[in-house]
Amino acid sequence: MKTFGSVSTEMEIQSPAREAWALYGAVGLTVITVPKYLAAVDIVEGDGGEGSIAKLTPLSGSPYYEKFTKVDDKHMVKETEITEGAFLDLGFTLYRIRFENIPTGEHSCITRTTIEWEVKEEYVANSTRVSILPSINIAKDIEAYLLANEKKHKDSK
Asked: Which ranges carry the Bet v I/Major latex protein domain (predicted)?
């Protein structure tokens, strides 16, 4: 038997949806996550688009692999699933993260992050390790990055 769960959060970002998507989309997120959250992100298969496999090396702990199962540029949706290591080593049979950018205006969007998981019944206590907080922090960092680069761009004119 397995236990299923999900957690989701939404955060408004004061930047156009397409600009935020440029970071969430393919491998642009590495600009934000390395070196603050990860020591390295390496694309080991593919070009960073749908079907690609990335090796993520945390600042502490063992590397793990995730597959980009969906990269939809038109609808600004990206899904990844861990394929080796991390939560799978803790009895999870599925750990999926979905990022969605939803335009709310010319210069703003909602970033929705959803984590879905399945865990074997004997490891259900490990479900408490699932946290949406890193996704919230990354969304805040993306907004700060975009706003800082917008200011730099304006200042250079």
From this structure: 5-149
Per-residue pLDDT of 87-146, as tens digits, reads: 999 999 999 999 999 999 999 999 999 999 999 999 999 999 999 998 888 888 888 888
Q: What is the DSSP secondary-structure string of 32-49?
A: HHTTTTEEEEEEEESSSS
Q: Is 78 a catalytic residue?
A: yes
Torsion angle of alpha carbons 39, 60, 64, 140, nearest 10°? -60
Say if residue 152's pLDDT is above 70: no
Catalytic hit among 78, 140, 151, 157: 78
How many other C-beta atoms are found inside a 10 Å radius of the C-beta of residue 65?
Answer: 18
Q: Which residue has the tokens 């969430």?
A: 24
Q: What is the DSSP string of 103-151?
A: EEETTEEEEEEEEEEEEEGGGGGGGGG--SHHHHHHHHHHHHHHHHHHH
